[in-house]
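Service request form, structural biology core

Requester: graduate student, group of Dr. S.
Request type: structure prediction, single chain
Budget code: on file
Notes: please return the result as structure tokens.

Sequence provided:
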Amino acid sequence: MLQPLSLRSRRAVTAASGVLALAALGINAPAHAASYGTPTIALSAAYLSGAVGAAGDPVVTVTVAQSGADVSALGVAASASTKSSVAGTGDVTVTGTGATRQLAVAAHARGYTDLTIKVTGLGGKTATKTLHYAASAAVQNSADTRYLTGSSDASAAVDVGGGYAVVADDESNTLRLYSRSASGAPVKSWDVGSALGADKEIDIEGATRVGNTVYWTGSLGNNKDGEYKSARNTVFTTTVTGSGAATQLTVGGSYKKLRDDLVAWDKANGNRYGFAAGTADGEVPKQIDGFNIEGLEFAPGSTTTAYLGFRAPLVPPKGGGKALIVPVTNFDKVAGSGAKAVIGTPIELDLGGLSIRDIRKNAADQYLIVAGSWAADDNSDPYALYSWDGVAGHAPVKRLDLPTADPGGWEAVVDVPDLTVPGARAQLITDAGSADLYGDGTEAKDLDHAEWKKSRSVWFTVSG
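Core staff response, request fulfilled:
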């Protein structure tokens, strides 16, 4: 005999029947936690470098999702830090509400920490990813400082318009395209080694642009062990198409005997500069009487005569010696089509006992020269910025002493503003390859992760 249902039971049956009826009509029943999938989280980079007190540090894009849930309902935050003295959970800021968010870290101290980044979805479900974070120390001029990550050995740079520059690295044959206003990884990169037949580093140290052609030069010197490596005896061109973030580069011509031409020219002129001795087997390039080119720029009003700026030797090779420039009068054909170099009359500049680390001019033939020691790989010797008119016999003028308290040696100037305009600013870049950025005794060039390698760019006021 059937027993009558209680009021509570009758209500339960009625509710269940209603749900079945809605389902039969194709209308969704109320969602339950079991209908939500496990959230997913992805980081655009697993390794990130920042700096204490930095402006415009790199950010990471966080992509999240959860099946059955509106993505705007998902929360993203740092949930743990292995070393909060470097950066804690409260130092991580996440902005945005959609499927992609932007994550930034504000560092407290130099060092490393692993940050756990957590997405919290509906139904109490979560997922995490680890961000391996490294912070370098605070620097002077932090508001005007940006970091070029992915490489630590910046050695030459050329402006390509739209707020971007192509930067060379003397430890690789890769050219990288960076924003000039934001810290972060390169937008694009080009490995030019295979196109140039160079299986070892070219040791790219100088660059300049004429129209859509960029001219590049290796150091032409021996390696640090005093050995001749043919790849370093390379000058070449790239053709620029587009500008800004859309810039493209194509390798053009090259020449691999410019060093030989310079040595032969010097021998024919009484070994005035000691090029043969400086390039001899066993001679290292970074000595006062060595052989090492780091600057490249065209002469005033010329698109054919290029100035080769020497880091070594000094003239004469002793304290207080002058910096050396050797003109190559057919450089466009040397680098562009492999013609034998024609050498012009050398120029000796008084840079206060310093040598040339880079030289750059603008369309008005106003030059800036980055001057540094023939020996320095770090900041143990002074650096200075000089202006010049490019005319032999005219003295350069010191614009400022460059700060040396922070890691990295000054290596490149991107372009030259109108130096007659008060408050004109120029952007300079350091080679930080020998720097211990994170306080663990590891040189930047030897760090395990490219994302932690970086060079530093700084804007300086160069006219009063």
